[in-house]
Amino acid sequence: MAKVPVQFTLNGSEKAEFIDSGTTLLNALRDKIGDTSPKGGCHQGTCGACSVIIDGELRLSCLTLAETCNGAAITTTSGLAEGGVLHPLQRAFLDTFATQCGFCTPGMIMAAKVLLDHTPNPSRDEVVEALSGNICRCTGYEPIIQAVLTAARANSQNAA
Amino acid sequence: MELRKNYFADVRKDDLHEIGQPRPRSDSPGHVTGKTAFFADRSFPGMLHLKMVRSPHHHARIRSIDTSEAEKHPGVAKILTARDVPHNVYTILILIQVGPEDETVLADGKVRWKGEAVVAVLAETERAAQEAAAKVKIDYEVLPAVFDMEEALKPGAPLVNEYHGQNYYLYDSGECRKVRFGDVEAGFASADHILEQSYQSSPIEHAPTETTGCVVAPEGNDRFTCYTNTQAMFFTLDNTSIILQMPGSKLHFVGGTVGGGFGGKVDVIVEPIAILGAKLTGRPVSFVYSREEEMQISSPRAAEKVVIKDGVMKDGRIVARKVTGYTDAGAYSRHSPYGAQKGAGHYPGPYTIPNVWIDTYCVYTNRTPSSAMRGFGVTIGDFALEVQMDKLSRLIGMDPLEFRFINAYRDGDMKAHRQPTEGAALIECMQEASRAANWPVAEKFMAMSSYRKGA
Q1: Which residues form the signal peptide (chain B) (predicted)?
Q2: CATH (residue range B177-204+300-394)
Q3: In this complex, how many residue pairs, one in chain A and one in chain B, have their CB atoms less than 8 Å apart?
Q4: A88-95 and A105-118 helices cross at what angle (nearest 10)?
Q5: Are A134 and A74 in the same domain?
Q6: Please, which residues 264-323 of chain B have a Cβ atom closer than 8 Å to chain A?
Q7: Which residues are CB-neighbours of B264 under 8 A, at least 6 positions away?
Q8: Which residues of A touch B (CB under 8 A)?
Q9: Nearest C-alpha neighbor of A23 from the set A52, A72, A59, A63
Q10: Which of B25, B43, B210 sits opposite A103 (nearest CB)?
Q11: Looking at the structure, do residues A70 and A96 belong to the same domain, yes or no?
Q12: What is the distance in angstroms between the Cα of A66 and the nearest Cα belonging to chain B?
């Protein structure tokens, strides 16, 4: 099968790979580049576990062809902590018990990050809307919603 | 968190240091950083991908299997059928002497449910395995199928599973699990009212976000490391040892990290065939359910039917209860005989009833095999019982919570399956519920205790 080159930045680092044409970004990240933080829960765009951020926008990596990401800046949950210090969202997910099995967590954090990047002080309804594409089967959504609201409050206190 | 310290104050120590305090989970830092290693986060050079050819029929005889075209498909490394599996007929609970072995790893001569695994295809890529699987030709003779439990129990119904010989699990007590306590007919004769109701539930899929699967790596020392998301590591290890006729010392299972289980990952399904594939090819093997397989193939909670007949007095006492429970195992036992048995012990509920008669059947049908799920055997029973309790309270014009206080079991009461009640706290829970829900009950109920005076 013909290989195609792809080149993008992942969490600030340059990545270049030859992939089979038609490879999803999810599979390219996990199998070729070795970033397994995006998860494959359905491979059909319904569970949100594979969510990543591409050029500032929330995307489902299982429905995104890797070859369409040339030149893009991609962020995943594995790249959020800086110098060993957790991102406020990661801290909040820890503190509010917003994880149980952990499989949906990276996708949830991606969705929440895009929300807070655009809307630093979201209402509860806005948090619910932002997480509506991500399925959790363990905790229920309430601790996750609280985590995002907690992170938003922490951000605004730091900014003040 | 508020701790109620007034309950059972004389029997408990109040030196609690952990309860009521938030403590960080040890696994959360891995979850929020994406570092937690789920089984599918491991891959190995040269790893093969396994895809299953599944039955399109609910019940059929297999006349022939032709894998010749599939074998020629580019990228195919190995194709497995029933004759490749050393001990193909198994049942999970044989480890605790709950037999007979009744399920095939790969179908042999017959399929008993739509979706049953027939042929395993191992190939260089998932896509090649899928394409080759589509080229396997299986000639089926479709047989009559039965989907309804009561139909399955009728004489002349299609026989689902020859390893049982009849469409129900044969307990040592006979065609059903039985509980007999007191004289239920005398109880009904003395009752002011009798209410008989039927309750039914559908199968329920756990739908974990991570699908069932495993990754197997052959090691240099002739052992196999199996990274799996099973919820039952030792059931899986021991059953794999039986199925592959391989000493357990050759098997190294790595797991405990499960992306949602809820009972749905308790069966032994993917590991034996993946390890067999690794053994016969000498290569790592990945077998991961698609989302469709997770929803359609993995065991759901069993469908149940519960028929409850209660005799109740005007003063609120339940004097007789007769329950017939049916658990739909689907085509194979898996954990359902155990679930149905749990139901038999549970149907009196947390209530003291002097006359009880219970029959619970574990029934085989041509539906997807059911198995464990959160409180299986009792959860649907509780739904039925508590709806029944509400209906009974309305029947006699009594407050539904007060009605439960009257019947609540208390320490020392003999349960229908002849276990004395110990450590009961139902009265106290209901007292708290009364306060929390602002649903007042008469003062005499708020003064009750699970301890019986003089007991």
Answers
A1: none
A2: 3.30.365.10
A3: 98
A4: 130
A5: no
A6: 290-291
A7: B205, B206, B208, B212, B231, B298, B299, B300, B371, B372, B373
A8: 30-31, 35-44, 46-47, 49, 76-78, 80-81, 86, 89-90, 93-94, 97, 99, 101-106, 109, 135-138
A9: A63
A10: B210
A11: no
A12: 17
How far A41 CA lies from chain B's nearest CA (Å)? 5
Numbered ranges of CATH 3.90.1170.50 in chain B: 48-143+207-296
| CATH number of the domain to which A31 belongs | 3.10.20.30
Of the three residues A79, A111, A128, the one that is the final residue of a domain is A79
| In the block, residue with structure tokens 């030709």 | B137
Residue type, A160: A
For residue A153, what are the contacts with CB-CB under 8 A and spacing of at least 6? none
- The token duo for A13 is 């680092």
Q: Where in chain B is the domain with CATH 3.30.365.10?
A: 177-204+300-394
Q: For residue A119, what are the domain limits?
A: 88-159
pLDDT along chain B (455 residues), means of 10: 68 73 89 97 96 98 98 98 98 94 98 98 97 98 98 98 98 96 98 98 97 97 97 97 97 96 96 98 98 97 98 98 98 96 94 98 98 94 97 98 98 94 94 96 96 63
Q: Which helix or strand (DSSP H or E) is residue B199 part of? A: strand B193-201
| The pLDDT of residue B455 | 44
Helix or strand run (H / E) with residue B324: strand B318-330
Helix (H, G, I), strand (E, B) or coil at B305: strand
Q: Which fold has domain B48-143+207-296?
A: Aldehyde Oxidoreductase; domain 3 (3.90.1170)
> Of the candidates A29, A51, A79, which is a domain's last residue?
A79
DSSP state of B361: E
Residue A71 sits in the same domain as residue A17: yes
Are A94 and A72 in the same domain? no
Picking from B216, B217, B224, B225, the residue whose alpha carbon sits closest to that of residue B270 is B216
Using a CB-CB cut-off of 8 Å, the residues of chain B touching A106 are 31, 34
Contact across the interface for B30 and A102, Cβ inside 8 Å: yes
Contact B259 A101 (CB under 8 A): yes
Q: Which residues of B touch A40 (CB under 8 A)?
A: 40
- What is the ipTM metric for this complex? 0.96
Terminal-residue alpha carbon distance, chain A: 55
Q: What pLDDT is stored for residue B453 in this prediction?
A: 62
Please indicate, yes or no, whether residues A53 and A92 belong to a single structural domain of this protein. Answer: no
